[in-house]
Write a structure and sequence with these properties.
The protein is an all-alpha fold. The chain has one domain. The chain is built from ten helices and no strands. Helix 5 packs antiparallel against helix 6 and helix 5 runs antiparallel to helix 10. The longest helix is centred in the N-terminal third of the chain and has 30 residues. It starts with a helix and ends with a helix.
């Protein structure tokens, strides 16, 4: 079971690596319309995963609380929001198409801060996959292997554009293909590391699993609302981002319900 969880955890990282690999096959940086579409798609996947893979299971596992079954989900959700808000203020980072860095003042290079921005996205995603697999590995009957796999596949699909959105602009700025690929890949390395640590601590995780599931959901929703939605809507014809948001949302919802 632990071995299956390990391979499942690596699936999202594979998505990031494949996306970063686009730098070897595409000559030019991604057009604005494509970037907005990919960003909207990623946002849709993250929102659907937060609801079907994290918040609903969190409330189902707290069903013995009766009418207060929402309480762990609400508390964990807010803790996830506040955690990402804290990281946003502590880690210097620069978003795609942004001229001004966020977080504390830093002498870090522009490329490094762009990678840190995507790494912030990856933290809640790695937590989400790790918590779900930890619950499954602990024998929690409400989390099936198929449901955990659905989340991994969904996160991997939305990680593909994130890897490309990092590596392609770095290549356009003059960075070598190999180095741009490495930066794009490294932006997602925090996911498997965090997920593996969570699975190894499965025995400690299980008692507070509803809180941790909703914590990951809150962190992902923070990323969507604070970063992805503004990025997909910042240019003319931003309805492209909205359409692909719906595509990502429906795809993740379908995966979770069909496989879960």
């Amino acid at each position: 079971m632990i071995q299956d969880a390990f391979w499942g955890i690596l699936i999202p990282f594979l998505g990031t690596s494949l996306g970063a690999g686009c730098v070897f096959f595409l000559k030019n940086s991604l057009r604005d319309g494509i970037q907005r579409a990919l960003t909207g798609f990623a946002a849709g996947v993250m929102v659907a995963a937060s609801v079907w893979s994290l918040l609903i299971p969190a409330m189902e596992q707290a069903a013995d609380l009766g009418r207060l079954a929402f309480f762990p989900a609400a508390v964990g959700f807010w803790l996830g929001i506040l955690f990402l808000l804290l990281l946003d203020h502590l880690i210097p980072h620069l978003h795609q198409n942004s001229l001004q860095a966020e977080g504390p003042k830093s002498q870090l290079q522009r490329t490094t801060m762009m990678v840190l921005a995507v790494t912030l996205h990856s933290i809640p995603e790695g937590m989400a996959v790790g918590v779900v697999y930890a619950g499954w590995a602990s024998g929690n009957m409400s989390i099936s292997a198929a449901a955990a796999l659905a989340l991994s596949v969904g996160i991997a699909i939305q990680n593909f554009p994130e890897g490309a959105i990092i590596s392609m602009p770095l290549r356009a700025e003059g960075m070598g293909k190999g180095k741009a690929f490495l930066y794009g890949t490294l932006s997602g390395v925090v996911e498997p590391i965090g997920a593996v640590l969570t699975v190894l601590a499965a025995g400690l995780v299980l008692p507070i699993l509803p809180y941790l599931l909703s914590f990951a959901a809150g962190a992902m929703i923070y990323v969507v609302v604070e970063e992805l939605i503004p990025e997909m809507s910042e240019a003319p014809h931003s309805n492209v981002g909205t359409i692909f948001y719906a595509v990502g949302f429906v795809l993740m919802m379908t995966l979770d319900v069909a496989l879960g």
